[in-house]
Amino acid sequence: MVTRGFFSGRRPPSDTDERIPPGQYLEQGFPVLSAGPTPRVRTEDWSFTLKHGPRPIKKWSWAEFNALPQNKMTRDIHCVTAWTKFNTPWQGVLIDDILADAGIEPPSGFTLAHSFDGYSTNVPTKDLVTGKAMVALLYEGKPITLDHGGPARLLVPHLYFWKSAKWVNGLQFTERDEPGFWELRGYHMYGDPWREQRYSSDP
Amino acid sequence: MSAEPQPQSPWQMATITRIEKRTPRVTSFWFQPSRPFTHLAGQHVDVRLTAPDGYQARRSYSIASAPEAGAGIELAIERLDDGEVSPFFHDVAEIGDEIELRGPLGGHFIWEASDGGPILLVGGGSGVVPLMAMVRHRALQKSAAPIALVFSARVWDEVIFRDELIGLDDRRDGFDLALTLTREQARRASDYSRRVDARMMMQAMERLPKAPRLAFVCGSNAFVSAAAEALIEAGVPAGFIRTERYGV
Ligand SMILES: Cc1cc2nc3c(=O)[nH]c(=O)nc-3n(C[C@H](O)[C@H](O)[C@H](O)COP(=O)(O)OP(=O)(O)OC[C@H]3O[C@@H](n4cnc5c(N)ncnc54)[C@H](O)[C@@H]3O)c2cc1C
């Protein structure tokens, strides 16, 4: 229904319409959102663990992780709080390369991403592999700032950005789709911005 | 087949029933949802505006009223002059207007009287809004849970809900208020005139009977970062701190 007296609006330029999911607006800055204080993660203390259920498969130090193949990805990102940001340039390690280094095939089912601050979020494993997602180490060619999840954050650009866990310290394969932090608090299990899957009651 | 009700269309119309200027920059709007709901103190709603050509803008606003207050929900909206949605409310919206709204939303930044205390609340500017719902909920429930609120505003006249908060503080019934003004001198003995810091957080905790079991911090991103750091420096475990950031 049309809102009386609402005309102007901050319309996205029409040539970019098809890149902005419904309900989103174009953001030039880079807002920061998180559920708790910003953890101070030092690269000396940093590690990344791959697990299958409770069983650890492999663990990397900061130096070991940085020695993995590096890839670049420039993507549009979509935050559930309704902003979309175009062309964000990241560099990091594809999930495919993490799995290859651990010597495993991608398991079926789901993945929980875990973070240093206790945050977690769930993603179907197939949404992480075949070049779709990475653990990002650089933003605009520079180390990711702590506010934005540095030293390393998950990047799953085709889902709402709360899935791109900040301060990530591991991935855990699970058989069932287990809700993470925001999913336990009413957010959608999958979170496709093009289908506006914000809250658990959204189809 | 399951007997669970089908999810309703999450958006609904709500009618503006009352408008009241709170400070030079903040105005409260009361909404009566067409499908009334009960919320928890600290939750927010999403509001959606639609232009004649179908363009939509949506934003989140915390609910300022207590769950048991009845008669719709209060949103306290700060005007950002170059913003898209908040100037619409300040300049255009009138009593009787229908606005699309969705909620209540959020399951993390909430406090119920049954959760108990002590609780430490730290708000900056309009970040006080969800904390106000908690303070009002405590008062209406006649809860004895100790709550300390540290509220940072630029000047005395920008202290949202000022008279109500000071009135509750004066009851001396376990709710403790410290105002901190960043651009003016403090006016009351318990107030400060500087930005929040670890010493202020320590003193707020000393006014509680024992260490807080939870701290809630809300405001702009910069405020929340600074206040959360101050709490950690003052000895509050990071896992006890819940934050809500209003963006830029
Ligand atoms: C959970 C939650 C609860 C909230 N509760 C409240 C509340 O109780 N009260 C309250 O007042 N606010 C609250 N907010 C903030 C609120 O949602 C809005 O962000 C706020 O009202 C600003 O919206 P706006 O449309 O007026 O401004 P916006 O249009 O979003 O602009 C915000 C600022 O960013 C700048 N900006 C944004 N986009 C552009 C652009 N394309 N070009 C140039 N500049 C730009 C503007 O200059 C402006 O200063 C809450 C936010 C969240 C997430």
Short description:
Chain A is mainly beta and 203 residues long.
Distance between the termini of chain A: 21 Å
List how many beta strands of chain B DSSP finds: 11
Helicity level of chain A? under 10%
- For this structure, the quaternary state is heterodimer
Q: Helical element count of chain A? A: 2
Output mean pLDDT of chain A.
91
Task: Give the CA-CA distance, first to last residue of chain B.
Answer: 47 Å
The set of bound ligands, ions and cofactors reads: flavin-adenine dinucleotide
Shape of chain A: globular
Helix and strand composition category of chain B: alpha/beta
- Individual helix count of chain B: 5
Strand content of chain B: 25-35%
Q: Compute the CA-based radius of gyration of chain A.
A: 17 Å
Quantity of strands of chain A, as a count? 11
Shape call of chain B: globular
Give an account of the 3D structure:
The complex is a heterodimer of chains A (203) and B (248). Chain A is mostly beta strands and 203 residues long. Chain A contains 2 helices and 11 strands, in the order βββαββαββββββ. Chain A has helices at residues 62-66, 95-102; strands at residues 25-26, 47-52, 55-61, 71-78, 83-94, 110-115, 120-124, 134-139, 142-143, 153-155, 168-174. In chain A, strands 1, 4, 5, 8, 9 and 10 form a 6-stranded mixed sheet that branches. In chain A, strands 3-2-11-6-7 form a 5-stranded mixed sheet. The longest helix of chain A has 8 residues, at 95-102. The mean pLDDT of chain A is 91. Chain B has helices spanning 86-91, 128-140, 162-170, 198-206, 221-233; strands spanning 11-21, 26-33, 44-50, 56-62, 73-78, 98-105, 119-124, 147-153, 175-181, 214-219, 241-245. Chain B has 248 residues and is an alpha/beta fold. In chain B, 20% of the residues lie in helices and 31% in strands. Chains A and B meet through loops of A and strand 3, strand 4, strand 6, helix 5 and strand 11 of B. Bound molecules: flavin-adenine dinucleotide.
